[in-house]
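Need a sequence for this fold. Nothing fancy.
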């Protein structure tokens, strides 16, 4: 029981740390008013990296051994652990899926940033791709995500026009 108690304390510390990561990841992002759509891809790539690292740690043999010992001891701390493990897995899957979908827009980011204001030729394909993401993505098709993406696309268009006007 002494070993079990020590292992439970370790798992409780991990639980607290994981909860903190989840809370921070769910907070509203603060971004500059003129940030473009490539920032959205970078955000999700960073989030994917963080959650994949956390998942790798959770799935490590060291952690699995401790969890197996606590399962054998029928520890009550495992209920919280399993819930957090599931939430981390969902967050990692969401980030991975969002990166995959946002990469389909990546080919538009360069032309959108470097085009003249006559970027209209890129807009129909860009909107079709955004529509495809909205219709098929299990995670990214929320009004929150889509609004953020449209805001960034619009910011990029405005920045491109400003640059064009200042150079001309």
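Here you go.
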């Amino acid at each position: 029981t002494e070993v079990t108690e020590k292992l439970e304390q370790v798992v409780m510390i991990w639980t607290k740390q994981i909860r903190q990561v989840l809370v921070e990841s769910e907070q509203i992002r603060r971004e500059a008013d003129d940030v473009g759509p490539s920032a959205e891809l970078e955000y999700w790539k960073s989030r994917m990296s963080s959650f994949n690292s956390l998942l790798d740690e959770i799935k490590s043999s060291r952690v699995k051994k401790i969890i197996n010992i606590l399962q054998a001891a029928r520890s009550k701390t495992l209920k919280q652990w399993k819930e957090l493990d599931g939430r981390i897995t969902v967050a990692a899957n969401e980030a991975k899926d969002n990166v995959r979908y946002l990469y389909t827009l990546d080919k538009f980011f360069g032309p959108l940033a470097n085009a003249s204001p006559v970027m209209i030729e890129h807009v129909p394909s860009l909107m079709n791709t955004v529509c495809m993401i909205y219709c098929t993505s299990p995670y990214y098709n929320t009004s929150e995500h889509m609004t953020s993406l449209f805001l960034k696309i619009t910011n990029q268009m405005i920045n491109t026009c400003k640059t064009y006007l200042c150079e001309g």
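For context: The chain has a mean pLDDT of 89.
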